[in-house]
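Today's session is about reading a structure prediction critically. Students often jump straight to the picture, but the first step is always the sequence itself: look for stretches that repeat, for charged clusters, for runs of hydrophobic residues. Only then move on to the predicted structure, which in these notes is written as discrete structure tokens rather than atom positions. Here is the chain we will use throughout the hour.
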Amino acid sequence: MCIICKYKCKNELRPIKFTSENQEDRFMGSKTILRDNKGTVYKIIPSDNRREVEFYVSIDKYHVLNKYSIIPKFRKIVKVERSSIYKQYNNNEKTNNQRHFMIRHLHLPNFLIANFLQNIGLRNSNESIIYQNLDCSNFQSSCSNNNSMTLKKSNMGYEIAIAMDDFVKGYKHPHILDLKVGTSWIGQMEGEPAFKARQLLLEMFPKKEDRKLEIEKRLLEKIQKKEEKISDEEYQWKLYPQKSCILKRISGLIHRIYKRNIKSDIIFRDSNSSNYNIQNDNSYYSLVSPASANIHDLRYLLKSYKQQLTIETTCQHEIGIRIQGLIGNDKFVTRQQGKELSAIKTKQTIENFLSMSPQLCKLAIRKLQILKTWLLTQTNFKLIATSIVLVFDSSDIEKCDVRWLDFTHALKRNNSYSNNFNQGLVLGIDSVLDIANRVLVRQETK
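Below is the predicted structure for this chain, in token form.
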């Protein structure tokens, strides 16, 4: 039963935060996840992006990714609604508006779920969960207590979430390593979100700023070539400050170019028309004044540049992986710290993590080999910005798991893709496999 609203909750949610003490950085790719006491986690998804749902729906229970528990088990879709509960205090006190969240479960067959945003149909659901806003400390403490934390509010008044099995249920002291995998970004190929927007924006780059951008990128490439040849200590005090400064200048250039263009009343013109209104044609991106701009397209444009910048300025471009976050008893790596690690340091961190659980090392090899085989043979999806999560329980190191997740940018294949359109993802998996095999050989030798 909820303490505040006195409602009998069938299944109370316990959101868990993945942020540092000052809330400035993350320990994982996500700031929070929603968990309940029945072994389910809820991932909030963008209201204008159905790709993750479509990917999960395409994977039936007999699929190799489900058969070998490589991806989290998809259960259903839920709608997270906010409702206001008013609690009357004494006459001397003001009425306090207590915020709650209601989870409405959507029970639909798989062939209908893919269209859930177009046919929302959630208002008639009779199963609900009341979520109470409280604070919590961190992920590890949440595994042993019932604290909760505030969920980010949505302008729409509700959120859509995917309900999946909680694969760390029952772990007393979970150690988690979150790896971002792949070398692709959205908008890289024709037909992808932000591709046309990037092409149109590039046409408007002033020559002066365009040259500046190229110079900065060349400087960055020179620094990256030196990274593997120096010690970590020398990298921290010498190369990283230079790299950080260049990154800020590149980011500033892109930001200025972008902001200047969307602030002016520019309508991109079709080659066959003197004044083509692209808002009437879905094949064009509406990059006009903020009042009439397509926010969905602009968001993807910024996301595209951000993904490209992150990949090209971290070890991810070289080995196909970077550390999104690490949570352990005495070892923590935030998302920002993971971006700053060189390829050698990243490999060492992963190797040290796998060395703590021999069973995890064997499981990682087995599952990632299956995943690699599937990626090399499947032709339906291009997977961008996915993650591999490795976890074990320090109180029982035999208890461990490896999962592949984060399919927000699972793009259906189009004619512009070559046969090896997931090669960057395979590169990252190969890097983890090489590390795991090296650890396993050392363990067996001992």
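Discussion point for the tutorial: The chain has three domains: 3-119+157-165, 174-186+315-445, 187-233+290-314.
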